[in-house]
Design goal:
Number of helices of chain A: 15
Number of domains of chain A: 1
Shape of chain B: globular
CATH class of chain A: Mainly Alpha
Chains: A mainly alpha, B mainly alpha, C alpha/beta, D alpha/beta
Radius of gyration of chain B: 26 Å
CATH topology of chain A: ABC transporter involved in vitamin B12 uptake, BtuC
Order of helices and strands of chain B: HHHHHHHHHHHHHHHHHHHHHH
Strand order of the largest sheet of chain A: 1-4
Distance between the termini of chain B: 62 Å
Number of strands of chain A: 4
Helix content of chain B: over 70%
Order of helices and strands of chain A: HHHHHHHEHEEHHHHEHHH
Number of domains of chain B: 2
Oligomer: heterotetramer
CATH architecture of chain A: Orthogonal Bundle
Radius of gyration of chain A: 22 Å
Structural class of chain A: mainly alpha
Largest sheet of chain B: none
């Protein structure tokens, strides 16, 4: 979330405000840079995506008012809109957090960490293991739910971060000078290993690999919150709200870390020029490990949140969200942190709208959701070859 | 195979001796003979059969590569290879059919890996959706011949419909006769063209993208083709969707294949219940081998030509290449199309061999496995890529299953006690993962790197010292040539 | 005039890198484009060779417009170039590098390639011969089979030039070809440039900072500063031009002790 | 070049192995009978595949005594087909090359079973499928291919029929895009529409865990019934999320639902779920109860869908081998075993009484509609049968239609 990318441009309506001395002073405070601005950015992304997709949906409804007998598309849209938006945002934040892992690593090492989807899976399994431990100790229900969520996120985040660092040390670091595709293959090997190791552990310890979060029986997580919008009532699941809150807090922390601390500056420097950064005294290996740790921690925390939301995880759960998060990272512009956030939210929302509305077009149906999502990605890349927020790479000749 | 060069200059005494043509030839013949002996020594009823087979299968199947690598007179090499492929392989295959199956699978995957190598290894374009082109070929033959209830069968457009219909007009009878004789190869050519065309169609919009963006787009494209294959059963049924296409036809079996099989079997003293089955495998072996041979030849010819040099130039530096007159888009399209065309042809063979295809045969993991073959073998090096395809196919289809079979046999014999949770058969992907990681860690440039990459790796530390940055200039001021000379 | 550039304009974002430049290059000449760093010289080359698309202006070469052509088409039209920071195909041999340079002059046909026809073999032979000839011409005899990235810096510059010559250009654009060379190497390079013009009849345009080279070899000099042409003329005229002196001396105060002796 | 080293290494390894192989004398006699299974033992589908393999092992352990008494050793050889056609076919080649293997139990996926069974059939090796419900498996009419499980084209309509009986007027059909899930869902849809049930939507998704968005249009149309053609791990997660989002109608699935895990994943949301299967619940069938008990004891977890069918398949194979030995008086040929399997009549298995028709389908399929009574996995065996339907296989039905000419 670099502050430059959305900085106010000249000639806008807000000029008088922006040019006022008070604003100038305010905009340089940490409070603005690390709290107000990023939250504003997230809100802008969400509102923009919602407005755009809703408008598009109604436009389709205008063109094809009754795609199926007795189905008035615009009625269905208004009925489903809140539900689609909420599910889009919550899964969008999950994608965004996983996409951050891809993008951070790509930023510093310029390679796609294909094992990241398994880090996500690992996080979801650790989250399960922790809760299952509490549950079998009989204390799960006694914990304050907020504390429980925070503890779960911390534990699965730290464990996944450490795992990511370990993988980097063992499988990527020795290959830093090898052709670029080589770490890709080790990453795939690591994915197989992680899947099977988790499966072996799960089947030895609890003899099963459908790992069901024990939170199912806790009212706080289970009972949906009814929200009445207009004439229809929407039930919002508590876990969706947890995802959004946790993700926003973590993103703020990441923004502060990257843009407000010395270590963050080191990582940014490495992503621009590794060799020079080394010469300038930045501990390159340490910073790369740190990047893997942060990326892994985000992926792992996202895994735990995802597990909490869907209730049931397996050693093979990482592939689909991983692929989508990777798509999100590319859509936003791989290597760009704000891009990962935007891409994740967009992919989540697009998917939610498609899954919500395509059933009214029986000839298409949700079986084509993935194709349409990829179509959008390809269209974006054709017009913006480096993704939505990626820098244009005019190679210096 | 003239281009398969002799050994690099010898450095040690052993190598020096081995690099003498006569010694090389002798070693090669000895190797082949010993390998064949091993195969015939295998005792299926032994407790240790799986382990023995696990070791001997690669030794035997790698022997053509050994013959191709040792130094010997060219004529001897050709004769030896022909004997290997035309006599030794079929004889061993008839006595041990799983080895024949392995040979066919290896030829299929080696062909695929070589096709992908053109795109990734030669031209440096990362393609993660290569399996899509393979699917195009496979579905082409599948749709043409499967009796599954697709629009083609319903409208009597397919071979099976014609062939099973007794009342044929003379025209239709002629068509059937053509189909039964040459349709397979005809469709194979169409498969080449269709997959090549799909390659161009995909390439046109996306080839402007830089490396990793291209990777995700091709990955998406691979998924798109698979999803279409799965969904195009409604509203009009083209592909029979998730149910797949069954009973896909095989090419007609020439009579002498059966008699050849029978006579070999009688020479070996084997009881073969159904010689037509083995003969059909032999036919697929022949087609696969010929296809692979053609592909290898094409790879070498492309590589040592203007086109191959242009691809390497693009891989090394796109901007310099285009400034030197290499038309980027055209050459990249050509790479995409040639790689795709190979996959299309092999897809036709695959469908005929499997007799059944469904969308699950063309998942992302397949593309990644083929990519792994290219990289493990040595990107850009034709021989290396074939070796990579051999090893990965062998590991996946033979070594790992036999490893679990051995452990299972020991367990059945009461010599080993494993809890069912750790049943070895369940953990083949785990071992495969370790194999991939270790191979890459110990040979990052692949098993047989391309010559230039070998050099690159040896000198990677000096790489950074080459003066890349622009020299600090304003020479003017130092030597003072302005204002006076 | 072999090359006639009129009112060329190119901006990047808000920065106008080349503003309204008009330059003419006459056939068979050796000329230089000079100017302080950031004056827009390399951008100008990139515009000529189609790597950047100009915003306005015209480029006429040998009687045809180059506007809208891709770099490979410009190469085919007869302009070859080298790069400021060497861009060789590092993992190809020297000979192969030069062979790539012939691409736009070759007949490329898939059937001929796959069938190894006589026509194909004949062409390959000619390409080989030409590459060997250029190898010798550029003073690289005996180094044809080395990987280009393994050669010393000066040789790499020569390979780039030989590679550019391989496309039989009418005009060759050399972007700081002697940068990083010591005086003796520069002198050798100068004689190579002269040979290119005298023996091969190719028009030469240099971007150069080394004034000894510029003054010693150029028949005509154009001076760019801040994207604009501020002067043109013979070396003598340029030396006497107060605007040029100002452009350079104006930078001296900020410039500091950078020098060109940082040979590899 | 490294090739030399590799060659040297391999050769010496081979020599060593060959020597040790010849030293370790051949241990098997001629009286070893092996039964192979091919199921996915790794990857996401391995929950089912492993359970099937376990059931085969259990059946061999429990039921091979008659053969042992006749002087034979019975061994079990599990193969991992990785749910991948190439692997399945390659394994099939290995299986047919081992003459002591007389029967195969497998596969889980029709996409693997069809090409692999071509290999078995060419070599007269009998395959008994516990899980391939795709009609194409037996419609090819091979003498070696049999199945003990239901057929998609019978199971789907069974569900639809029962829904119509309940007076359901609208349904929403989902499937998991596999041959199994989509197949059974399509047959459900066709039959439901024929019976006058409005199908509000027919959708397939590969999504395995997050169904938030997919649920929205279902809620908006509020169907009386959701039919999900798929495996429990997906359908249970869907059901839990749908209930949390406010869905209150009925939920129905095919035999892929029949797992204690369904209750474990969905919890109380599972209560009231309907599913169709050929395997009766343990509470009513004492055999089934005994199977579940011994399975759980041996493997530490409950059997998954198709485990009972795998047990039956193995039992049929063992019985057929015994019959073939008795009629031939020695080790039977594969063709003998295949014929004996096909001749199986009135076999009392865990999943009903099985008599194969000429295509290898059970002549009469006994299909149950079962209701889940509790969200506690331990209570799974108490699920109650709420309808039983006897449906003849297509071949049998055709024969019956012929026997009673239309009046």
């Amino acid at each position: 979330m670099s502050s430059e990318s959305l900085s106010p441009r000249q000639g806008g309506l807000l000029d008088p405000l922006i040019q006022s001395e008070a604003w100038q002073r305010f905009s340089h405070t940490g409070f603005y840079r690390f709290i107000v601005f990023p939250i504003g950015q997230i809100i802008v992304f969400i509102v923009a995506a919602t407005v755009f997709l809703t408008a598009l949906a109604y436009l389709v409804a205008l063109l094809i008012p009754e795609p199926r007998p007795n189905i008035v598309l615009s009625d269905q849209i208004s009925r489903q809109l809140p539900g689609m938006v909420i599910s889009g945002i919550s899964i969008g934040f999950v994608y965004a957090m996983v996409a951050l892992g891809y993008t951070l690593v790509y930023g510093v090492l310029k390679f796609i960490n294909f094992a990241h989807s398994e880090i996500f899976m690992f996080g979801s399994v650790i989250g399960f293991a922790f809760m299952n431990f509490l549950s079998s100790a009989g204390v799960l229900a006694d914990w304050n739910p907020v504390v429980l969520v925070i503890a779960t996120i911390l534990i699965s985040g730290i464990a996944s971060g450490l795992l990511a660092v370990l993988i980097e040390r063992v499988a990527y670091k020795p290959l830093r000078n090898a052709p670029r595709l080589v770490p890709l293959i080790t990453a795939i090997g690591i994915s197989f290993i992680l899947q099977d190791v988790v499966r072996a552990l799960a089947s030895i310890t609890i003899n099963d690999f459908n790992l069901t979060y024990p939170t199912r029986n806790i009212a706080f997580f289970q009972n949906p919150i009814p929200v009445v919008i207009g004439t229809n009532e929407v039930r919002v699941r508590m876990t969706s709200i947890i995802i959004v809150i946790a993700a926003v807090i973590m993103l703020l922390a990441l923004n502060y870390f990257v843009n407000g601390t010395k270590a963050g500056r080191g990582i940014r420097a490495i992503s621009m020029d590794q060799a020079t950064s080394g010469l300038m005294g930045i501990p390159v290996n340490l910073m790369i490990s740190l990047t893997f740790f942060i990326g892994g921690a985000f992926g792992g925390a996202a895994g735990a949140l995802f597990g909490l939301n869907v209730g049931n995880v397996t050693p093979y759960i990482g592939f689909i969200p991983g692929l989508k998060a990777f798509t999100a990272a590319v859509l936003g512009g791989i290597g760009n942190i704000t891009g990962a956030l935007l891409g994740g939210l967009l992919i989540g929302m697009i998917e939610a709208f498609l899954n919500g509305l395509l059933p009214y077009f029986p000839a298409i149906g949700i079986r084509y959701t993935d194709i349409i999502t990829f179509g959008i990605l390809i269209a974006v890349l054709i017009f913006r070859p480096s993704g939505l927020l990626g820098e244009r790479v005019d190679e210096k000749v | 195979m003239a281009t398969v060069s002799a050994m690099t200059p010898a450095k040690t005494g052993f190598r020096e001796i081995l690099s003498r043509p006569a010694v090389g030839l002798a070693v090669a013949i000895l190797y082949v003979v010993v390998a064949v002996l091993f195969v015939f020594m295998l005792d299926r009823r032994s407790l240790w059969y799986p382990l023995a087979s696990l070791v001997i299968a690669p030794i035997f199947l790698l022997s053509p590569l050994v013959v191709a690598s040792l130094s010997m007179p060219r004529i001897a090499r050709i004769v030896l290879l022909v004997v290997m492929f035309a006599v030794v392989m079929p004889v061993v295959g008839i006595s041990n059919p799983p080895y024949l199956e392995l040979a066919v699978q290896i030829s299929i995957f080696a062909g695929l890996a070589l096709g992908l190598n053109i795109v990734v290894g030669f031209a440096g374009l990362l393609d993660l959706g290569y399996v899509a082109f393979f699917a195009v070929g496979a579905y082409l033959w599948g749709m043409a011949t499967s009796p599954s209830e697709t629009i083609f069968t319903e409208n009597a457009w397919t071979v099976s419909y014609w062939a099973s219909n007794p009342d044929l007009s003379p025209l239709a009878a002629g068509f059937v006769a053509f189909v039964q004789s040459g349709a397979f190869f005809f469709v194979m050519f169409i498969g080449i063209a269709a997959a090549g065309l799909v390659g161009v169609l995909l390439g046109l919009p996306v080839l402007r993208l830089r490396g990793d963006y291209l990777a995700i787009v091709t990955l998406g494209f691979g998924e798109v083709i698979r999803i279409f294959a799965r969904n195009l059963d409604s509203p009009i049924n083209f592909t029979n969707g998730a149910q797949g296409l069954r009973n896909i036809a095989a090419p007609p079996l020439p009579g002498f294949y059966i008699s050849f099989t029978e006579s070999i079997a009688s020479v070996l003293g084997l009881r073969v219940d159904n010689p037509a089955v083995l003969a059909k495998q032999l036919l697929f072996y022949t087609i696969g081998l010929v296809l692979l041979f053609v592909i290898i030849l094409v790879c070498f010819r492309l590589k040592d030509s203007v086109i191959g040099r242009a691809w390497t130039a693009i891989r090394e530096d796109e901007i310099a290449a285009i400034a030197m007159g290499v038309p980027l888009v055209r050459m990249k399209l050509l790479a995409f199309a040639s790689g795709a065309a190979f996959a299309g042809a092999i897809g036709v063979l695959y469908a005929a061999k499997q007799t059944f295809i469904d969308p699950q045969s063309f998942i992302l993991l397949q593309s990644i496995t083929i990519l792994a073959m290219v990289i493990v073998g040595g990107m850009g090096n034709v021989k290396g890529v074939v070796l990579g395809a051999m090893i990965i196919t062998l590991v996946e289809l033979h070594t790992l299953p036999n490893l679990s079979l051995q452990l299972n046999a020991l367990r059945n014999a009461g010599q080993l006690n494993i809890p069912t949770q750790l049943d070895p058969a369940k953990y083949q992907p785990l071992v495969f993962g370790f194999v991939l990681v270790l191979m890459m860690l110990f040979r990052p440039a692949g098993l047989l790197p391309e010559k230039s990459r070998r050099l690159e790796l040896m000198e990677r530390n000096e790489d950074d010292e080459l003066p890349k940055e622009e020299p600090i200039s304003d020479a003017v001021l130092v030597d003072g040539s302005v204002p006076q000379e | 005039m072999l090359l006639k550039v009129n009112n060329l304009v190119k901006s990047f974002g808000g920065i106008r890198a080349v503003r309204d430049v008009t330059i003419g290059i006459s056939e068979g000449s050796i000329s230089s484009i000079i100017g302080p760093n950031g004056a827009g010289k390399t951008t100008f080359f990139n515009l000529l060779t189609g790597i950047y698309k100009p915003d306005q202006g015209s480029i006429d070469f040998n009687g045809r417009s180059l506007i809208g052509l891709r770099p490979d088409q410009v190469n085919k039209a007869g302009i070859a170039r080298t790069f400021q920071s060497i861009r060789l195909f590092g993992n190809m041999t020297v000979l192969e590098n030069i062979m790539v340079g012939t691409h736009s002059r070759l007949h490329i046909s898939l059937p001929h390639t796959l069938l190894r026809t006589r026509r194909f073999k004949e062409q390959e032979r000619l390409v080989q011969e030409k590459a060997s000839m250029l190898l010798k011409f550029a003073g690289l005899s005996g180094k044809g089979d080395e990987l280009s990235k393994n050669l010393p810096y000066g040789d790499q510059r020569r390979i780039e030039i030989a590679r550019a010559l391989a496309s039989d250009p009418k005009l060759i654009l050399l972007d700081e070809p002697t940068a990083g060379m010591n005086p003796q190497e520069s002198a050798e390079a100068m004689s190579l440039f002269r040979k290119i013009r005298d023996e091969l009849g190719i028009t030469v345009v240099l971007i150069e900072h080394d004034m000894r080279v510029v003054m010693g070899i150029s028949e005509h000099i154009d001076v760019l500063d801040y994207g604009q042409k501020i002067a043109e003329g013979t070396p003598e005229e340029i030396r006497a031009n107060p605007r040029v002196v100002e452009a350079y001396l104006g930078r001296r105060a900020m410039g500091g002790g950078a020098n060109n002796d940082s040979a590899a | 070049m490294k090739l030399n080293k590799v060659v040297g290494l391999l050769s010496s390894a081979a020599l060593a192995t060959a020597l040790s192989v010849s030293l370790v004398a051949a241990q098997d006699g001629d009286n070893v009978i092996r039964i192979a299974s091919q199921t996915p033992l790794s990857g996401p589908q391995s929950v089912l595949g492993v359970s099937m393999s376990n059931a085969v092992r259990l059946a061999i352990d429990e039921l091979s005594q008659p053969l042992v008494d006749m002087g034979y050793t019975v061994e079990y050889v599990p193969f991992d087909d990785q749910a991948t056609p190439e692997v399945g076919v390659s394994n099939a080649q290995q299986i047919v090359a081992d003459p002591s293997i007389l029967a195969v139990v497998g596969h889980l996926n029709s996409g693997v079973a069809i090409p692999s069974s071509e290999v078995y059939n060419e070599n007269d090796l009998v395959m008994i499928s516990p899980a391939n419900t795709n009609p194409a498996i037996t419609d090819r009419g091979y003498a070696t291919v049999n199945r003990v499980c239901g057929r998609d084209d019978l199971q789907g309509p069974t569900g639809a029929n029962y829904a119509a009986e309940l007076g359901i007027t609208s349904a929403y059909v989902l499937h998991d895009t596999t041959a199994y899930g989509q197949g059974v869902a399509e047959y459900f849809q066709d039959e439901a529409e024929r019976l006058g049930i409005t199908v509000l939507g027919f959708e397939g998704t590969e999504e395995a865990s997050n169904f938030d968005a997919i649920i929205q249009p279902i809620l908006a149309q509020s169907p009386e019934l959701i039919y999900f053609g798929g495996i429990y791990s997906q359908t249970a997660a869907f059901l839990a999320q749908a209930r949390a989002a406010g869905y209150e109608g009925l939920f129905m699935g095919p035999d892929g639902t029949d797992s204690t895990e369904f209750a474990a994943i969905a919890g109380d949301a599972a209560v009231g779920t309907l599913y169709t299967t050929v395997a009766g619940p343990a509470s009513i069938y004492p055999n089934a109860a005994a199977f579940i008990e011994s399975y759980t004891e041996a493997f530490g977890e409950g059997p998954q869908p198709f485990a009972a069918q795998s047990y039956d398949s193995t039992a049929i194979a063992l019985q057929a081998i015994q019959a073939a030995i008795e009629s031939t008086g020695g080790l039977p040929s594969r063709a003998d075993v295949a014929a004996a399997v096909r001749a199986t009549a009135d076999y009392e298995g865990l999943t009903g009484t099985i008599t194969f028709d000429a295509n290898g389908d059970p002549e009469i399929g006994l299909y149950y509609v079962i209701e889940v009574v509790s969200g506690d996995p331990a209570e799974w065996s108490n699920n109650s049968i709420i309808a039983t339907l006897e449906i003849p296989s297509p071949l049998t039905a055709a024969a019956m239609a012929e026997a009673t000419p239309a009046s």
